[in-house]
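User: Run a structure prediction on this.
Assistant: Running it now.
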Amino acid sequence: MAAISREEVAHLARLSRLAVTEEELDTFAGQLDVILQAVAQVGEVAAADIPPTSHSVPLTNVFRDDVVTPCLSPQEALSGAPDAEEQRFRVPRILDEDVAS
């Protein structure tokens, strides 16, 4: 017996505001049923003595020392800019002044 019905798929589609055809309802019902069965199998395998994990392999953060290095001066950074003003990049205005934020 299917774990998810065609009507449930239609309901989910409405909630998601997805337009699905009659044929897609049947297809999605079958596909979702396979997914739900796979999740149920995983649930059966999970044992109380196995701690939950977020990754299949252990992760270790790799940190590096913060080293101060020389950076561009404002003049060097702005040297390729088409337009600059007060040590800043000047770009065209995209919003009108009367637009409320």
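The first strand starts at residue 84 and ends at 85.
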